[in-house]
Amino acid sequence: MCLAIPGQIVEFSAEQPLLAKVDVAGVKRSINIGLLADEPLDIGDWVLIHVGFAMSKVGAQEARDQLTMIAALGEEQQAMDEVRGYTFSP
Amino acid sequence: MNMGRMKYVDEFRDPELIAKVAREIERTVDPQYDYRIMEVCGGHTHSIYRHGLRDVLPKNIRLVHGPGCPVCVLPMGRVDDGLSVAERPGTVLTAFGDMMRVPGTKGTPLEYKARGCDVRMVYSPLDALRIAQNEPDKHVCFFAIGFETTAPSTALTILRAKALGVRNFSVFCNHVTILPAIRAILDSPDMRIDGFIGPGHVSTITGCRPYEFIAQHYRKPVVISGFEPLDLLQGILMVLRQLRAGEAKVENQYRRIVPWNGNAAAMRALADVFELRPYFEWRGLGFISQSALKIKSAFAEYDSEARFELPGVRVTDPKAAQCGEVLKGVLTPPQCKLFGNACTPEHPIGALMVSSEGACAAYFKYAPHQQAVEA
Fold first, then answer.
1. SS3 A14
2. Which chain B residue has its CA at the smallest distance from A86's CA?
3. Which of A59-68, B35-44, B328-337 has the weakest average pLDDT?
4. CB pairs under 8 A between A and B
5. Cα separation of B178 and B39, whole Å?
6. Phi and psi for B343 in degrees, rounded to 5?
C-alpha cells in the first residue's frame, strides 16, 4: 500500500508544469510533481513515487537503496505494475 | 538467536552487520523483562514476517502489530457504503488493488464487478480522474483509503478536478491519520506497549515532530525506521537502548528517506482540502475522535458522501473472526479460530487476511513454522 518507488526525472512538461517524466528501471511514465512544490527539481534528480505522485526528493544512493529494499520485500513486480499502470498521462 | 532459521537472510546486504545488531540487541535487553514493541506500519509487519525477524530476536521481545494497514482498519460498513455507489446505474467505482478483494457484507469489489457493476482498479487517483474526463456520461467515484502517505495525492487530485472543471468525479474519503490511533492504543487500559517503531513512508509526509507527544506525555520511545531487516533491527535496538537508559525520545533511523520536518507542501495540500472528522470508526479499535479526514465543504461536489445518500450502516464483523483482537495485539493471528481454515488469503473473511500488510496474511504466507510454536 505504501510503496515508494524510486524514479529519475528525465523530462519536464512545458504544457503541464505539474507533470514530469520519470524513468523507473527503464520504464518511462509521467508523474505528478505537485507535492514537491517547495523543492527545486532538475533533470537527473531522483524522487520517490507513490500512487502517481512524487512525494519526496532523494539522493542517488538513497534511490538505489530503496530499489534494493523493494526487491527485499518481494514487491518489485508490484512496483513495476504500478508504474506501468499509470494511465493519467500517456 | 538462531540465524539458521532466519529466512531470506542471504538476500540482504551485509548479513554480518545484521548478526552484529542482533547480538547487540541480546546484550541490551533485560532478560527478566517482557518487552512489547509495536511496529505501527503494515509495511513493517510484512517485512518482519517475510524475513522471519522474530526468530533473530530474544524470546522476551514481542512485536505487536499496529494499526497501520489501511484496508485492515476500515470497518465493513464503510466498504458497504463504497460498494453502494457501484450499484448505482451510470457509476464507475474505482479503487486501488488493495481494496479489490476486501469483503463487504455482500461481497468484494471484484465480486461486484463480476455481477456487472462497473468497478475498476486504478494505480493513482489521477487515473480515476482521467476516466471521468474520458467518460463524461458516467460518474466516477474514487474509493480513497490510506494514511498521510496517500492522502496528499487525493487532495491534489481533488484540486486538479476543480481546476479542470470536471463535474462527474467524486471521492469516497476514508483517509485516516495515524497519530490518534496511536494515542487510542496508549490510552487503552488492556494494552501495554513499551516503545514504538514509527512508520517510514507516512513520516516522509508528516516528519518526526508529530510523534513527540508519545515521548513527552506517555514517556515511550519512538524510532522511525526503514523496512529492511537491518533497518528494523536497528530501530528495535534504538528503542531498547532508550528503555535501558530510561529515556523517551523520538529518533529517526530512516534518515536517508525521512526528513525531520516532513513535506510541507503535502501537509498544506491536506489542510487545503480536508478537515478532521469529529470521530471515525476503526476496525478493532472502535470510534477514535479526530482520526480521519473529511473533504471540506468548499469541495462538496467532489465528496461522494455529500453527493450521494450512502447507507451509512454499521456492520459488525463476522462473529467468529477475531480481527479486532489481532489488530490490538491481544491475539496473535493463529490464535484466531478462523485462521488458516475458514479464513485464508484465497478466501479471506477478515481484512487482515487480504492485504499483504495485514498481520494474518503475512503470518499465513511466511510463518508456518511459527504457527506450530504459538498455536
1. coil
2. B123
3. B328-337
4. 133
5. 12
6. -115, 110
Helices B229-245 and B42-50 cross at an angle (nearest 10°) of 110
Contacts of A50 in chain B (CB under 8 A): 149-150, 153, 201
Helix (H, G, I), strand (E, B) or coil at B274: strand
Selecting from A2, A35, A62 the residue whose C-beta is nearest the C-beta of B256 gives A62
**CA atoms in the 13 A half-sphere facing the CB of A47:** 30
Does A56 contact chain B (CB < 8 Å)?
yes
Residue found by looking up cell 471521468 in the block: B132
For residue B240, how many other CB atoms are within 10 A of its CB?
Answer: 25
Instruction: Yes or no: say if A16 and A90 are a contact pair by the CB < 8 Å rule.
Output: no
Instruction: Region of B4 please: left (phi>0), alpha (psi -120 to 50) or beta.
Output: alpha
> And the C-alpha cell for B243?
528503555
Q: Which residues of B touch A38 (CB under 8 A)?
A: 263-265
The ipTM, to two decimals, is 0.96
Q: What is the pTM of this model?
A: 0.93
- Length of chain A as a residue count: 90
**Tell me, what's the pLDDT at B319?**
76
Smallest Cβ–Cβ distance between A50 and the set B98, B149, B357 belongs to: B149
pLDDT digits (tens, 9 = 90+) for B87-140: 999 999 999 999 999 999 999 999 999 999 999 999 999 999 999 999 999 999
Cell numbers given for B200: 517510514
